[in-house]
Amino acid sequence: MQKLIIYGPAKLMGEIEVEGAKNAVLPILTASILAENKVIITNVPDIADVKHTLEILKYLGCKVLFENNTVVVDSRSIKKFVIPPEYTKLMRSSILFMGALLSKFKKVELSNQTGGCEIGQRPIDLHILAFRHLGIDVSEYDSRIICKCEKIKSGEIFLPIPSVGATENIILASIFCDDKIVIKNAAKEPEIADLCHFLNKLGAKIKGAGTHIIKIEGVKKLKNEEVVHRVIPDRIVAGTYLCAVAACGEEVVLRGVFPRHLDSILHILKSAGCKIKESKNEIWIKKEGRLKGGQRITTHYYPGFPTDLQAPVCSAFVVADGVTIIKETIFENRFKHIPELIKMGADIHVEKDIAVINGVEKLRGCRVFARDLRGGAALFVAGLCAEGVTEVFEAEYIDRGYEKIEEKYSCLGAKIIREKGE
Ligand SMILES: CC(=O)N[C@H]1[C@@H](OP(=O)(O)OP(=O)(O)OC[C@H]2O[C@@H](n3ccc(=O)[nH]c3=O)[C@H](O)[C@@H]2O)O[C@H](CO)[C@@H](O)[C@@H]1O
Ligand SMILES: C=C(OP(=O)(O)O)C(=O)O
């Protein structure tokens, strides 16, 4: 078990380059099995979920190289369309191989036991309903899902919830459809636009990505040429840096970010007293004194406040002056960081999906356990601003989505070491 030992309180100063987005690179790597030639993907974060995806690609028969944040995938040798549970269990987004393998082979078989963090029930009913609507025969036996079809039929799909994963799976399954597929109430997250941008480079015909209506015109074949694609910056990693500066104070410049992807968190932190300036690819943040409470934060689909930043922002407002209310509307079980924050001295009351935070002057370091990725990041942020030593156990959760977190925050002046835990 990995643990991060943080010697707080830290003042964060300096400049940092934000890594590529986990939630964009995972579907893009999955989509790379469709390419007719090599793909070169740059700005790939060196995180556990990327390594797991590469393991699946290799298992399927792809040739894969990962060096210096660049992945080269050659899927011309891909042979398999069945993914065993030991691979799907590695992470949640293994479910996206359903759509990609269906496009490739018109059949796919995988375990419905996908891994990742337990933050809610996370059913895949909308993925399956949509597949059936496209003429795909979907059956489930012994926790395995088997999908097959002769062709992908045209049509319109209305998603009752703008699910990110369902939107991506439908897109991946649709690129060779017999005419046109329209997804209504599609998810608008920037990572979906990045996936579609990549697929269009490969030769797909997708319009409307980033809006609620996505139109896919089926193509017979993709282009046989090498494609290079740079993954968009990780808005959640960037948002976590912003929360850390808001919690600890001082002055940081985030480089290589898209500020427009971060509007919701920037708005909240500005209202809470942080000084922030944005330019095309940079955000400057300065925080002096205590953050102002009094904020009402409700998670929502993009461009609303992201559920993935709910835990990190919670750690920032734990030490704010005043009461802050956070409502989690996307996942049922995403407050697992709160009992750990309370151990550190936070004053938080949870009633169903609402957390009421009475800001305290300071936190004190102690032993805490990460229970999921973003909850782990929240404990890391809390450890940075706490007095004394915080040990964050089960740091493997954090490693799913943050590249070398201790090294990056050390560059900003924090004192952190990583150790094998007990
Ligand atoms: C790899 C990736 O990109 N993960 C992100 C993706 O997860 P993921 O794609 O799993 O999230 P979804 O947008 O699908 O889930 C949103 C809500 O819809 C529900 N739902 C979803 C599908 C379905 O078939 N039925 C159903 O009821 C889920 O339980 C959840 O309550 O979007 C989430 C919401 O922004 C983020 O927290 C995750 O970081
Ligand atoms: C919940 C997350 O990821 P995943 O959907 O991969 O579990 C996340 O990135 O916060």
UniProtKB/TrEMBL annotation:
- Residue ranges crossing the lipid bilayer per the database entry: none
Q: Which Pfam families match?
A: EPSP_synthase
Compartments where found: Cytoplasm
Q: Which GO terms describe its biological process?
A: cell division; cell wall organization; peptidoglycan biosynthetic process; regulation of cell shape; UDP-N-acetylgalactosamine biosynthetic process
For the protein in the UniProt heading, the enzyme class is transferase
Domain of life, per lineage: Bacteria
- For the ligand (UDP-N-acetyl-alpha-D-glucosamine), the binding residues are R92, R122, P123, I124, D125, L126, D308, I330
- Which NCBIfam families does its entry note? murA, PRK09369.1
Protein's name in the database? UDP-N-acetylglucosamine 1-carboxyvinyltransferase
Question: What is the gene name?
Answer: murA
